[in-house]
Predict the structure.
Amino acid sequence: MDFFYNYLLYLIPVFGLIGLLVMAVKSAWVTKQETGDANMNELAGYIADGAMAFLRAEWKILGYFVVIAGLLLAYSGTTIAGSSPVIAVSFLVGAFLSAFAGYLGMRIATKANVRTTQAARTSLAKALKVSFTGGTVMGLGVTGLAIIGLGSLFIVFYTIYVKNTGADVNHEAMAKALDVLAGFSLGAESIALFARVGGGIYTKAADVGADLVGKVEAGIPEDDVRNPATIADNVGDNVGDVAGMGADLFGSYVATMLATMVLGREIVSHDNFGGIAPVLLPMVIAGLGLIFSIVGASLVKIKNETDSVQKALNIGNWVSIVLTAIATFFAVRWILPEGNLYLIRDLNAEGVIKSGAVIFDKTGVFLSIVVGLIVGTLMSIITEYYTAMGKRPVLSIIRQSSTGHATNIIGGLSVGMESTVMPILVLAAGIYGSFHFAGLYGVAIAAAGMMATTAMQLAIDAFGPIADNAGGIAEMSQLPEEVRHRTDNLDAVGNTTAATGKGFAIASAALTSLALFAAFVGVAGIDHIDIYKADVLAGLFIGGMVPFIFSALAISAVGRAAMAMVEEVRRQFHEIPGIMEYKAKPEYEKCVAISTKASIREMIAPGLIALITPIIIGFAFGPEVLGGLLAGVTVSGVLMGIFQSNAGGAWDNAKKSFEKGVEINGQMYYKKSEPHKASVTGDTVGDPFKDTSGPSMNILIKLMSIVSLVIAPHLHKEVNHNKRIQKELHLRSMNMHVIKANKTL
Amino acid sequence: MDFFYNYLLYLIPVFGLIGLLVMAVKSAWVTKQETGDANMNELAGYIADGAMAFLRAEWKILGYFVVIAGLLLAYSGTTIAGSSPVIAVSFLVGAFLSAFAGYLGMRIATKANVRTTQAARTSLAKALKVSFTGGTVMGLGVTGLAIIGLGSLFIVFYTIYVKNTGADVNHEAMAKALDVLAGFSLGAESIALFARVGGGIYTKAADVGADLVGKVEAGIPEDDVRNPATIADNVGDNVGDVAGMGADLFGSYVATMLATMVLGREIVSHDNFGGIAPVLLPMVIAGLGLIFSIVGASLVKIKNETDSVQKALNIGNWVSIVLTAIATFFAVRWILPEGNLYLIRDLNAEGVIKSGAVIFDKTGVFLSIVVGLIVGTLMSIITEYYTAMGKRPVLSIIRQSSTGHATNIIGGLSVGMESTVMPILVLAAGIYGSFHFAGLYGVAIAAAGMMATTAMQLAIDAFGPIADNAGGIAEMSQLPEEVRHRTDNLDAVGNTTAATGKGFAIASAALTSLALFAAFVGVAGIDHIDIYKADVLAGLFIGGMVPFIFSALAISAVGRAAMAMVEEVRRQFHEIPGIMEYKAKPEYEKCVAISTKASIREMIAPGLIALITPIIIGFAFGPEVLGGLLAGVTVSGVLMGIFQSNAGGAWDNAKKSFEKGVEINGQMYYKKSEPHKASVTGDTVGDPFKDTSGPSMNILIKLMSIVSLVIAPHLHKEVNHNKRIQKELHLRSMNMHVIKANKTL
C-alpha cells in the first residue's frame, strides 16, 4: 500500500508534464500558421510589444514586492518557533510560476490573434481552430505549471518533513509540510491579485480613454489606426482578459488543492488510517481533469460557416466535465480508505465525535464533488441569463434606456443587485449539500471538483479575447468585410463565454475561500468563530467593508487613468499633423506607456489592503476575530463581485442590442438614437464594474484567506496552535478503534 | 426600595405625557399662525389632501395586514406552549401608535408648510420658528407616544405576569412579560417598514416623474403650478421625508428600549439583585432625553436675517445631548445596583462566569452610553463630510462630470463605496468599546443613549421638508423673491440636516439591530452563533443577499412608478387644452392617485421578504442559522445603506453646486452646461438611492431582527428554550454569592 501511494505521489507531476507537452505541440502548431501581410504583422507586433512592455513593468515592481515579502517570510520563519524559513522558497516558486504562466498565456495570445485574423480570410472553421488552440495552450500552460509546481514541491516537503523522519502521515510533521506549501499558494495568489487589478485597470483605462476621444470627440470608429490609444486598447484585452483571468484561475486552482490537502491531512478513519490518500486526492482530481480537458478540447471544431461555434464549445466542455466526473468516481473509490471517515478537529479530547460534526465515507466525498460540478454549472447558466441579449434583464435595461441616461443606470444597477439572488441560493445550497455529504472536507473537495476542468474553462475564456483582438487587427488592416464578419461571430460567442466564465470564476473563488477558511480554522487551532462575540462581530463588519473600499479604489483608478489617456490622445491629435489623413503615425507607445504606468501605480493600494488587513487584525485581535473578518470579506466580496460583473455584462449587451436594432413601445431604435446614447453611458459605467472591480473580488477574498492561512500557525501560538498539536498527539496515542461514532450526539 | 422602583415604573409614562402636552401647546401655536392668501391656502389644501389620501390608502392595506398578522400571532400564542395570545394585543397597540404618530407628524407638517411660507414674508427668524416648531411637534409626538405606549404596556404586563404572581423580577415570569412586549415593537416596526418603503417610492416616483416631463420635456421650472405632478411631488416630501423618517425613528426608538430591557432582565449582581432597575433604565434614559430635547428645542432661534440657522440648530442639539448625558450619569448611579454585574447567559451551569464574558459595573454602563453618543455624533459628522458641498468627495464628482454622464456616475458610485470605510470603523470601535465597558448590555444601552434625544433629532429632520414644502408653495404662488430666498436658506440647511440625519438613522439602526441580535440569542437559548458551521455560513450568505434584492425591488419600483407618472403628465398636457397658458387647472389628484397606488402596490413585495425570510429560515434551520442570517443582513444592510444614502447625497449636492457655478480645470460652469447635465443624471440616479432604498435598509435590518426576537421562544423550543429556563432556575436556586468572578478564565 505504501508503495502504491508513493507511486501515486510521483505520478502527480507527470499529469502536469503531459499537459505541458501537449501545450508545446499545440503552441508550435499555432506558431507555424500564416501571419498575413506586412501591415497585419506590424500591428500585431505593436500589440505584442505593448503586452510585453506591461509585463516587464509589472515584473519590475513585483520583483521588489516578492523579494521583500520573501525576506519577511524567511525572517518570520526563522524567528517564530515551529515555522520554517523554507516557506520563503515555496512563496518564490509560486510567484515565479504564476508570473510565468501569465507570460506563456500572453505570448500565445499575441501570436494567435493575427493568425486568427489570417485564418478568418479562409473560413470560420479555421479561425475557430486557431483561436481556440491558442486558448487551449493558455489553459494547459496554467494548469500544467500549477500541477507540476505544487506536486513537485509537495514531494520535496513530504520527503524532508515526513518520509525522512519516519513520521506518521497524519502527524504534525505533515502539517508542517503543508504549512510550508501554503507559501506556494500565497506567492501565486499575490501575483494574481496584482495581475488582475493591474490588468483590469490597464484594459479599461485604454478602452474608456480610446472611446471618449476617438469615438465621441474625433468621430472615428473603434479600432481605427488613427487613434493613438487603439493599440493600448488591444493590448488591454490581452493584459486584462488573458493574463488577468489566467492568473485568477491559476490562483484558485492552486488554493483549492492546497486547502483540500490541509483538510485531508486531518482525516482519520475507524482503522486509524486516513493516510496520505485524502491529501493526494485533490491533486489527482486536478490531474484527471487536465487529461480530460485535452480530450474535450480536441472535440471543439466546426465544419461549415453556418455551424454553431457555441455548440462546439459546449460539446467540448461537457465531454471534459462528464469524463472527469466518471474518472473521479473511480479514483475516489480506489484511493480513499473504506468505512467511516472523520476530521480530527471534529473529535473531542476523548476521541468522541462532536455534536454537529459529519461522519462520512468515500461515497459522500464523491457526491460532494458532484455538488461542486453542479454549482459551477448552475452559476454559469444564471450568469448567462442575467447578461444575455434577448432575456428579461437586458431587455428591461433597453426599455429603461428610452427615458434617458439616468433610468438606464437605475435599470442596470437594479439588474445587478437582483442577479445576486439565485447565485447566492445556489452557493448556500452547495455549501449545505457538500457539507452534508462529507463535512468540511466535502466543501473543499467540491471546490476541487469544480476546478478540475480549469484547463478547458480557460481555453474557452481565452479564446474570446484572442478572437476580439483578431477582429481589431482585421478592422485596423481594413480587410474584407467577410473576415470581420467571421471574427465578429467568434467575438460574440466570446462575449457569452466571458460572462459565464465570470460566473464560474466567482463561484470557484467563493468555494475556494470557504475551503481556505476551514483550513485556516484548523491550522489556527480554534474550533469556532462566534459572531455573537462583540469583537468577532466587529471583525465581520470591517471585513464586509473591505470589498467596498477595494471596489472604490479600483473604479476610481480607472477614472483617473482614463482621464490621463484622454489628455494624451488630445495632445497627439493637436501636435502631430497628418494623423487624421493617415499621413503620420500616432505614437502608440506613449499611450501604452500611460496605461502601463497608471495601472502599475494604481494596483498597489488595493493590493496592500488585501495583504495587510488580515495581518493587522490577526495579530492585534487573534484568530477568531480574523475569522470574522474573513467571513465578512467573503460574503460581501461574493455579493459585490456578482453585482458588479453582472450589471456590467448586462449594460454591455443592452448597448450591443442597439446595433441590430431594438423595439421599445412599438418603435424601432438603432445606433446613434437617443436610447442608444443612454445605453453607451451604461456600458461605460459597466466597463470598470465588469472588468476591473467585479472580477478583482475573486482574488481579494482568496488572497485574504491565504494570508490568514499562512499566518495562522503564528496567531496566539502559545495557546491555540500548541493545544491543537497536543490534542492530535493525544488522540493518536489512543487506540482509534475506541472512537464512538455516535451520530445522535 | 421596592416602593421606589414601583414609583419609577409609573413615572415613565409621565415623561411621555409631558412630551405630548408640550406637543399640544406647540401644535396649537402653529395652527394659529397666519396661513396667507387664498391661492396659498388652496395649494396647501391640495398637499394636505394628497397626504391624507396616501395615509388612508396605506392604512387600508395595512389594516388587512395588521388583522391577519395579529390573528396569526394570537393563534400561535394560543397553540405554542409558553407563549401567549396577549402578544397580539401588544402588536396591535404598537401598530396603531406607529400609524398614529405618522398621522400626527403629517398633519402638523402639512399645516406648518404654508404657515412657514407666510412667516417667510416677514422674516427669516419667524420662518425658522414656525417650521422648527412644526418639526418639534413631530419629534415630541413620536417619542411621547412611544414612551407612553411602551411604558404603559410594560406596567400592564409587569403587573399581570410578575407582580400579581409574586415572581422574582429577574425570573422567567419577567421574560414572558418582555416576550409579549416584543409584539409592540414588531407592530411599530412593521408599520414603519411599509411607511418608509411606500413613502420612499411615493416621493421619488413623483419627483422623478415630475422632473422628466416638466423640466426636461415641457421646459417649465420645478414647482410650477402648470405641472400636474407638482402637487404629488410636494405631497411626497411629507409622505417620504416626514412620515417615513418618523416611522423609522419611532421603530428604532422602541426597538432599542425593548432590546435593552430584554438584556437588562438578565443582569445579576453579587448580592443576587439586579432587580428591575436595568430593565427600566433604557426607558428612564428615553424619558430624560425627551425632557432635555424640549429644553434644547426651545433654544433654536435666531434674531437677524444674517444669523446662521445651522448654528442655532447645533446649539439646541448639543444642549439637549449634553444635558441628557449629565442627567443619565446621575440616573445610572442612582438606579443601578452597586458592585459587579453579569448577564445570566454569561454564567455556566455552576455559576462561574464564562471565558470572554464581561464583568461590569454602573460606571461601565454609563461609559457605554457615552460611547453611543460619540458614535452617533461621529456618524453624523462623517456623513456630512461625504455629502457636503465644497468638500473633496462632492468636488471629485463635479470634476468627473466634465467628461460626461458615465464618469459622473462612476464618480458617485466610488464616493458612495468609499464612504463606508469611516462609518464602519466607528461602528466597529463602538461595538468593541461598549462591549468592553458593559458587555452586551453595554452595546444595547449605547444604542439607547444614542436614541435618547430622538425628539430633538426628529425636530431637526422634519424641519427640512417643511421648509422645502414652504419654498414650493412660495414658488407656485409666485410670491416675491425675498420669500423664496428665505425658504431657500432654510431648505439648504435642511439638506445638510437630512444627510446627517441619515447618518444618525443608520447608526441607530445598526446598534439597535445588534442589541436585538443579542436579545434574540438570549431568548432563543443558544449561546453562540458559529459561522464556522456550514449551515450558519450559508445563512450568513443568504442574509447578506437580502439587502441587495430589497434594494433592487425598491429602485426598480421607483423606475416603474415614475414611468406611469410620465405617461399621465404627458396625457394631461395633450388632452387638457390651456394648461400651459394657466387657463386650465391640471388634474393634480390623478397624479396623486398614481403615486399613491404605485407606492402601496410596490411596498408589498419587499415588506413580505423582510417579514417572512426570518420565519422560514428560523423554523426550517433553527435559531443558530437564523442568527447567521441576521448577522449577514445587518452587515450587508448597513453597508448598502451607507453606500446608497451617501452616493445619493453627494450626487445631489454635486448638481446643486452648479447653481452657483463651479470651476473645473480653470473654467467656470453653470446650470445648463454639459457638465451640469451630467450632474443631473447622477442626481436622478441618486434620488431612489438616498430616499428609497438607502434609508429602507435601516428598517429592513431592524424588522428582521424583531421578527426573529418574537419567534425566538418557539425555535427548537424543546431543546434550547427549556434549557435556558432550567439553567436560570438552577442558578437562582444557588446562592449567588458563590459566583467566582474569575477574570482570567
Notes: The CA atoms of residues 672 and 688 of chain B lie 23 Å apart. Strands of chain B lie at 267-269, 341-343, 662-664, 667-669. Chain B touches chain A through 80 residues (CB under 8 Å). Confidence is low (pLDDT under 50) at residues 735-745 of chain B.
